[in-house]
Specification:
Oligomer: single chain
Shape: globular
CATH architecture: Up-down Bundle
Strand content: under 5%
Radius of gyration: 18 Å
Helix content: over 70%
Number of domains: 1
Distance between the termini: 52 Å
CATH superfamily: MFS general substrate transporter like domains
Number of strands: 0
Amino acid sequence: MPVYADQVFGRAVNLGLMLGGFGGGAFVGALFFGAFGERLPRRTTLVVSLVLSGLPFLVLSTAPSLAVSVGCMFVLGLGIGPGNPLIFTVVQERSPPEMLGRVFGVLFALAEGVAPLGMVVSGYLLEAAGLRFVLLAVAAGYLAVILYSLINPALREMETSAKSASKEHEV
C-alpha cells in the first residue's frame, strides 16, 4: 500500500486515509461477526469474507480516485474482520485440546515466517512487473483460494462445531 499511495497519489497522507479505511472496515467486520457470527453459515461466511478481501485488489489495479481507494480498503478490512475469527474458531474447535498450543504455535509461526517472504517477493515483482501486475496477482491468488474453498469437500465440515460432531459420533 505504501507503493500504491506513492505511485497513484504521490502523498503519504493518502496512505493514512487508506489505512484508516482498512482499520474502520476491519473494526466493523469484527463487530458484525461478533454480534451475528454464530447465526451465519460458516462456509458461506468464509467465502464471502474471501471475496470481500480479494475484490478490492482488482479494483485498486485500475488506480481509482482516492475516495474509491479508501472504500476499497474499507471493504478489504470488512472482509478480513470476520474471516480471521472464523478460521481461528474452527481451528480451536477441531484441534484436540492437548494439541491446541502446538497447533496455534505452528499457525502463528507460519504466518509470521511467510509474511516477510511475501513482502520480499512483492518487492521484486513491483520492480520487475509493476504495481498493476502485483495487484492483479494478489486478486488472482484470492480467486484461486475462493475457488478452492468452494470445491474443497473438507470445508463442508465447518458447519458443525466440534461439540455437535462429537455428539454425532456418540450416537
